[in-house]
Design brief:
globular, five-stranded antiparallel sheet, disordered N terminus, mainly beta
């Protein structure tokens, strides 16, 4: 649970939002259980290969939301489906869902580690007719800090593969946006 407690402050730093108070950072098990009645939650089991002699394992005992008001978090080994909408050229993430029952409006995120390698891959499938992009941050297994990382736009009706040559404990995606035609291939 120490990773979850560190997330709000780290997110505040990467997203440029005010830090939360210590009381607001720590959600009780009861509060999380109540929240998980109305939103899709999960208790990740993270298994990461670091190098030939080291690995990291972390099982979360308490489920927590996939999609929160300011961000989406994804752990290695997860495939997530998030229903979204576009209105007035604004991309809104509506809700995380267990299966892709509305493929015309459901973004698909798959985060995995290359077999026997420290490398990490994120595949994002964009169902929309316009390119979309997210601001991303990552937390390495040896840190409680979320670092900004570049991200590329996801072409319309296609998938994008992002790659990192080192292990990542969690990825955070925020600020979903529709990308204009002049910015549709930019990575930043």
């Amino acid at each position: 649970m120490r990773w979850l407690r560190g997330l709000p402050l780290a997110l505040a730093a990467i997203l440029g939002t005010p830090a939360l108070s210590a009381d607001a950072q720590t959600a009780s098990t009861a509060e999380l259980a109540e929240l998980c009645k109305s939103t899709l939650c999960r208790a990740p089991k993270v298994r990461l290969f670091i190098d030939a002699t080291r690995s990291v394992e972390q099982d979360f005992a308490t489920p927590f939301p996939i999609l929160q008001p300011a961000f989406l978090s994804i752990y290695p080994g997860e495939t997530l489906f998030v229903e979204a909408s576009i209105e007035n050229e604004k991309l809104t993430l509506e809700r995380a869902v267990p299966t892709n029952e509305r493929p015309e409006s459901t973004l698909r995120f798959e985060f995995k580690q290359a077999s026997g390698e420290p490398d990490m891959l994120l595949v994002i499938r964009n169902p929309f007719e316009v390119p979309v992009r997210f601001r991303m941050g990552l937390m390495r297994p040896d840190s409680n800090v979320i670092l900004a990382t570049s991200s590329c736009s996801v072409p319309p009706k296609l998938s994008l593969v992002e790659h990192w040559p080192y292990p990542i404990f969690v990825l955070v995606l925020a600020d979903p946006e529709v990308v204009g035609p002049t910015d549709s291939v930019a990575c930043r």
